[in-house]
Design goal:
The protein is 66% helix and 4% strand. It is built from 7 helices and 2 strands; from the N terminus they run ααββααααα. It starts with a helix and ends with a helix. A hairpin with a 6-residue loop joins strand 1 and strand 2. The chain is mainly alpha-helical. Helix 2 (17-89) packs antiparallel against helix 5 and helix 5 runs antiparallel to helix 6. Strands 1-2 form a two-stranded antiparallel ribbon.
C-alpha cells in the first residue's frame, strides 16, 4: 500500500491491465487456504467452548452432589433425632419390689422394665391383637419402624462410605442399648434367650411381635456391615 505511489511512475501503464488477472489468480489460490484457516480457527473455538462448558457442567454437578450429600446427612440426622426423642419420651410406671413404690420411668430404662414386666401382665405374648392394645407395645413398635426407616435411608442415601458406617454404628449402638435383649450386649459371651415352650422360639420374655421386628432389624444392619469386612 505504501509502495504503490512510488511504483506507479516506474510501472509501465500497458502492463497494469495484467495486475487484475494476477490478483484474481492469487486470490483463487489464497481463498481456499484462508477458508481452511478459518475453519480450523472455528473448530478450535468450538472445542475451547465445549471444554469450557464441560468445566462449568462439572462444577454444577459437583455442587449438586454436595447439596444432595448435605441433604441426605440432614435427613438422616433428623430421623435419628426423632428416634432418640421417641426413646427418651417412652414412659412406664414400674413397681419396685424392694420398697413397693410405683415410679414413673422414662427412656431406655422404662423400655427395659416394660419388657421385663410384660410377661407378668396376664396377656398372651403370642396374641398380637391383645398386645397391640397395650400402649407400651405400640410405642416400641413405632420406635422399631422409625429404626427400619433409618436403615433404608442409610442404604439409599447419597453419602460417603465413612458417613454411612458412622450412622450404621450409632444405630446399632442405640438399638442394642435401648431395646434389644441384654444377650446382644456381649456377642462374645454367646448368650441366648430362653426358648418359649409354646412356640419353641428363643424370644425370652419379649413378645414375638416385638422380637420378630428386632430380628429383622438385626439382620438388616448385620447385612449392611458385611461389605466392610
Amino acid at each position: 500500500m505504501f509502495a504503490t505511489p512510488v511504483l506507479f511512475p516506474i510501472l509501465n501503464i500497458k502492463n497494469l491491465k495484467n495486475v487484475g488477472e494476477i490478483g484474481a489468480a492469487f486470490w483463487e489460490i489464497a481463498a481456499p487456504i484462508a477458508q481452511l484457516v478459518g475453519l480450523i480457527l472455528l473448530f478450535l473455538a468450538f472445542r475451547e467452548r465445549r471444554t469450557a462448558n464441560n468445566i462449568v457442567q462439572m462444577q454444577v454437578d459437583a455442587a449438586e452432589r454436595r447439596e444432595m450429600h448435605a441433604r441426605s446427612v440432614k435427613h438422616l440426622h433428623e430421623l435419628y433425632t426423632i428416634l432418640g426423642n421417641n426413646i427418651s419420651n417412652f414412659s412406664y410406671e414400674s413397681k419396685f419390689e424392694t420398697d413397693g413404690e410405683v415410679k414413673i420411668l422414662s427412656g431406655k430404662r422404662a423400655i427395659r422394665c416394660f419388657i421385663d414386666d410384660v410377661e407378668n401382665m396376664n396377656i398372651d405374648l403370642h396374641d398380637n391383637q391383645l398386645l397391640l392394645q397395650k400402649d407400651g407395645v405400640r410405642e416400641i413398635l413405632s420406635i422399631l419402624r422409625i429404626a427400619e426407616n433409618i436403615f433404608e435411608k442409610i442404604k439409599e442415601a447419597n453419602i460417603e462410605e465413612t458417613d454411612r458406617n458412622f450412622y450404621l454404628n450409632i444405630m446399632k449402638h442405640e438399638l442394642i442399648f435401648s431395646i434389644f435383649p441384654y444377650t446382644d450386649l456381649d456377642e462374645s459371651a454367646n448368650l441366648k434367650l430362653e426358648t418359649c415352650d409354646e412356640c419353641n422360639e428363643p424370644h425370652g420374655n419379649y413378645p414375638p411381635l416385638i422380637f420378630d421386628k428386632m430380628q429383622l432389624l438385626k439382620r438388616h444392619f448385620l447385612r449392611e456391615e458385611l461389605p466392610a469386612q
